[in-house]
Amino acid sequence: MFKQLSQLSKNLTDELAKGLADELNEGQEQFDKNSDLPVDVQAKLRKFDKYEQKYPLLLNAYKAEKAKIEKLAALQKILCENTPISSLEDFDSLTSFFQNTNLKIDMLNDEVKRLTTEKNEQSVELEALRGQLNDKDNQSDVDVSVEDTHKERIELEDRLKTLHGETDQLRKEVETKNAELAKASAKTEALKKASEESATLRAELKDAKEKIGESKHALQEKEEAYRTATAEIKEINTLLDQKTAEYEKVRSEQKLKQNGDNCNAQGGQSANSKTKNRKRKGKNKNSLPVDVQQNATAISDVKPTGENDLSSEIEQLKEIQHKLNALQQDYDALLNRHQKSKEEIQVLKDAESELEKLRIEKEDTVRQLQEAKDELKFKSEELDSNKEILKSVGNELVTAKDQMKDLQSGDNAKVNELKSELESIRVRHSDSIKLYETRQNELKQKITTLETEKSKVAEEANKLKSALEKSSNEYQKLSSNLKKTEETIARLRKENGSITDELREMPALKKSENALKMSVTQKEKTIVYLEQQIKDYSAKEEQTNKLLRESTAESGRLSAKVDQLTRINEGMKNEVRKSEESMEKFIKNNGTLGEKLEVLNEKYATLKDLKSVSHEQVGTIGRQCDELNIKLKEANKRIGFLEDELNESALVVQEKTKELVGMRRTLAEGHSDVGARLQKVENILTSALDEKERLESEFALQATMFQRTIQDLKKSNENLTLQIQELRLKEKNYEYEVNQLKSSNAKVQKASNEDSGKTRELESALLEVRNSLSNSEKKLRSLEIANESFKELNGDLTRKLDRVSKNYKQMSSQLAAAKELKTSRPSSRSNSVFSISDQHSNGVSRRASYTEESGKETQADLNDKIAYIKNVLLGFLEHKEQREMLLPVVSTLLHLDSNDEKRLLISIR
Q1: 293 near 287, Cβ under 8 Å?
Q2: Whether 93 contacts 203, CB under 8 Å
Q3: At what angle do helices 674-754 and 828-849 cross, to 10 degrees?
């Protein structure tokens, strides 16, 4: 900087020397021209020369300032139209607006990723259902014709083609929506540029600090909500684990019983004991799957005690499964709502910064995908080998069944039984096809909802996740195949027991039985081995899912931090540029002042040499020189001040660069904490959903309460108006009676003047009239007091009505805003709250139908009121965030004053 300043000073001195020489020549010429004029006129002409030099500079400065003001006005207009800012001073609302939009964008990106993963899961389930259909076709090929199955497959393929066509249409619609979003994003980018020009760096730093505090507070709240949800899920998982453990215990006990019975059969027990034990074994085995249990009830009337326990446990498992399905439906509804809100928030994203980050992330994800694909190929090969083993097991079972059929071909009764079993298998096959069709229709609907929006990075990540989740689906497939093999084994054992009762003497049958038992034991060993492999695959799948979640969450956070750092860096660069420009301007002003000073000094020397200038001119020139010296000193001071500012700005820039380096280091270190951050984001989402549910339930409760109070107040107001009218009529009647009494009194007085004999009677009448007058006056006073009290009551009721109407308007506006942002999601707590609100609404409708004759409330209304007040008080005590909103509701219910409200708040805190 000092070298540049020295070079500038040298250049300025050279230019000043040239300018001085020219000005000296011009000054001499002007002096020669104006030498004929008087001294005063010459001084004024010199002043005008100065003004002529300054005028164009002032005019240019005025034009520049005017252009800036016009640009500022246009910018303010754009901001007022498109953002919540009403003036240039209101920057806090703009920053909070962008903060909220960024938070919504992050949350909705996570939801989109989850939706795409669910879509891939549904496609995997479709493939699993196809595999099950193929397995069922292979098992039921004994009596079902090949042509029927071929036709069914063709129909299913046609349906799948129609589904693919519908998905293509949906993709086209998604593309059109993306085009609209691109237009909206262009508008938002223009708005962002305008806001960046208007907002200063200090305001951004303050807003960033406030944002960090708010986000920490929100994260703490949402972590608590997520812990509650995870606790519920853990409870459900523990229940499932308990049921599976009980199921495995029963199965092991049955296996032990079976082995003991086989040993007794070989030891030479009687034929009757053999048949009984085998029948028991068949029943115990058939009690595990639901379909075989139904067939066993048709054959045998007697059931063991363990069968009832297992059926109850299976029913409990079904109930748990229904609960999980309900939770899944709620989750789907939430995802649909977040997709709708994403269309509003996606407008505010910076496309260029995202593309650069996505390229970096894409390279990482491609590497991970290649590794995952290699692992998946290896797993698919292992699964294919397992499938071949299972197919061989099924073929062996079919061959064993054929052998059994050949052995019992002589018996027509047994053939009929086998035919009935085959018919039942056909019925099951048709039922399974129907189930497949219904499941396929459900999958159609889910696919149409899920294939709305896809992004490049999300597709690649979800492909990896879906490929990893295939192992879990294969586990389900293998478990279903295991159940089928158990069913077939149980059926074969039943048939074996019935055959051995009648054909004891045939050694061939015994050999075949032993062979079948050996094959069954071998198959069971293979099934155990397959289950172990499936567990290993599920563990690997969980690891890959964790890696995927970490990568997605880290990418979003890094993008947000890099955006903030780039903005801060740009602001600092702009400040440095401004300071440098101001420094250059001051240097130029200093040079011009120095030139003017030298010119004046030279003119002063020339005037002394010429000796034609008077003492007055010398005094004026001396004053001008003093003024210029003062200006020079001020300019030097400004130069020093600007140099200090430049040094300070350079130090600030260095500090900011250090902070940027530190932020990058923290970003690099933050890769290890990605899992915890992902959980925080999930906590944010769950807590936001819970808050939304709470708000909706509380809004519904408050709305019903306000409607109810308004109706009650209207009724009481009508009753009061009727009473006031009745009192006014009574007052008029009393006034009329008083007037009549006064007139009668006047008549009596006249009669007393006319007839003195009747004075005593008139006096007694007067006393009676006076007594009646005093009574009537007392009644009038009491009526006036009652009228005033009724007026006061009416005024209080009107005030309460105004207050209730204001609160109702506020709550309705908040409800409308909440409904626009988030659609309603039913949950256990919200169902309970809405049921109470429905009871209140029913109570309100019942009250509206009541006539004025029913003065007292029924016991049901009192119970409704008590339940309502209890629910409001529990919500007030449980939720700290909603206390300010629920405080007016509690105060209206309990008739609390301001002092009572303060005492209540202090006692709670």
Answers
A1: yes
A2: no
A3: 20
CA 285 centroid distance within chain: 49
The whole-number pLDDT of residue 839 equals 41
What are 609's two structure tokens?
């040499």
Q: Nearest-CA neighbor of 262 among 497, 455, 464, 56?
A: 497
Q: Which residues contact 421 (CB under 8 A, 6 or more apart)?
A: 295, 491
pLDDT given at position 178: 61
Q: Can you list the pairs that 347-353 forms with residues at least 24 positions away whose Cβ atoms lie under 8 Å? A: 347/181, 347/184, 347/185, 347/187, 347/188, 348/98, 348/101, 348/102, 348/105, 348/185, 348/188, 348/192, 349/105, 349/185, 350/189, 350/192, 350/563, 351/185, 351/189, 353/559, 353/562, 353/563, 353/566
Write out pLDDT tens, residues 387-396.
676 666 566 6
Report residue 398 as tokens: 């079919």
Taking only the tens place, the pLDDT of each residue in 617-664 is: 556 666 766 776 677 777 677 777 777 777 776 777 677 777 767 766
Contact status, residue 741 vs residue 720, Cβ threshold 8 Å: no
State how far the Cα of 468 lies from the Cα of 375, in Å rounded to an integer: 9
| Token representation of residue 473 | 């689906």
Sign of CA dihedral 261, 262, 268, 270: positive
Residue 755: what are its φ and ψ, rounded to 5°?
A: -125, 105
The 10 Å Cβ neighbour count of residue 890 is: 19
Q: Which residues contact 313 (CB under 8 A, 6 or more apart)?
A: 243, 246, 247
Cα(906)–Cα(686) distance, integer angstroms: 31
Q: According to DSSP H, which parts of 451-506 are helical? A: 456-502
Place of tokens 């004024």: 44
